[in-house]
Amino acid sequence: MTNFNDVVSQFRIEGTVESVSPIGNGLINETLRVKTVDANTPDYILQRINNAIFTDVDLLQHNIELVTDHIRHKLMEKGETDIERKCLRFVQAKDGKTYYKDVDNRYWRVSVFIPNAVTKEEVNPESAFCCGETFGNFQNMLVDLKEPLGETIPDFHNMELRLRQLREAVSADKAGRVASVKDMIAELESYADEMCLAERLYREGALPKRICHCDTKVNNMMFDKDGKVLCVIDLDTVMPSFIFSDYGDFLRTGANHVAEDSDNYDAVGLKEDVFCSFTEGYLSTAGNFLTPVEISHLPYAVALFPYMQCVRFLTDYINGDVYFKVKYPEHNLVRSRNQLLLYRDVRRHDQMMADFVKKTLKQ
Ligand code: GN1
Ligand code: MG
C-alpha cells in the first residue's frame, strides 16, 4: 500500500495534509485529491504518472512547464485576474523538479487544486460553443511558443502507426480473440487508406503540425460556478499534432449521443447541434490561424477520431487489454463497436458538416 502522505511530503506544499482520496476517472494516470487542514492553505492534486505509457517523464514535465509558463505569461499580459484558477501550477519537489520518483520507480507530481471549480461529463449545445472557443484559444495561445515541444507519446495520433499496431496485434493474436472480430477488422481495413490522408498531406508539405492538447474531452476542462471555462487540464499529451486532434477528438466524445463505452448501440450517433455549436466556437478562436487545407478537412477530422479510437480499442482488445483500463473482459470490444458505429454515422453527415463549416466562415 502506498503511503500517500509520504509521497506528498516530498513536495514543497503549504500546510498540513488532512486526507488523500481518489478523484476523476481517467483511463491512464491515477489521480488523488490532497486536502490540507487549514482553510488558508490550498488543496492539491496528486497524480501517479503512468510511466509505462509516458516513458519519458522528464520530457513530459518539461513540456508541461513550458506550456503552463507560456499561458500564465499570456494571461498576465492580457491583464487577466484570477490567473491561479485559469492556469495549472505544478509544485516543485525537494530537488526543484516538478516530479518525484519513489523507491519503487513510480513517478508522482503535485499541482495546486483549483478551488470553487467544477468539471462536467456531458456537453450540451450551449457549453459546446465555450468548449470549441476554449480549445481554439488554447491552440492560438501556443502558436508562438518558441521552444519546441517533444512528443510525450511519439506518433500519438498517427493513423498509419495505429493501423500498423492493429495489424501486428492481429498477426500475434496473443489473446486468441482475432477470429471473433474478423468482420470488424475487414471493415476497418476498407477505410484505412482514406483515413491516413492527414499523414500523406503532411509528407507533401500541405498540412502543418501545431501544438495541440490531444485529449480534448469536456472532463479535461474546469468551469466556474457560473458555467464559464476557467482552464484546460490534463496536459500530458500536449504536443505537436494536426489541429484535427483537438477538433475531432472533442466531437468524438462530446457529440456522441452516448458514452464511448455504451453498448446501447442503436443510440450511438452524432449530435448535430453539438457539432454545430462546437464548430462555431472553435472557428471563432482558431479561424484566424487555420490554413484552407486545415479548414476543408475538419469534416474528415470528425470521422478520423472515432475511426482511430476504434482501431486503438480493438488493438487493445486483441492484445488482451494491456493499455486501457477495463472493467469487464469485453469492455474494449464494446468500446470499439461503439466507435465504429459513430464513425459510420459521422460519414452520413459529411455533406452537412462541410456545408456548415463553409457557412460559419462566411458569417
Ligand atoms: C485515454 O486517460 P484518458 O481517458 O484521459 C487516452 C486517450 C483516449 C481515451 C479514450 C494517453 O485518455 O487518447 O482517447 O483514453 N490517453 C492516452 O477514453 O492514451
Ligand atoms: Mg483525462
From TrEMBL:
It comes from the Bacteria. InterPro entries: Aminoglycoside_PTrfase, Kinase-like_dom_sf, Pseudomonas-type_ThrB. This is Phosphotransferase enzyme family protein.
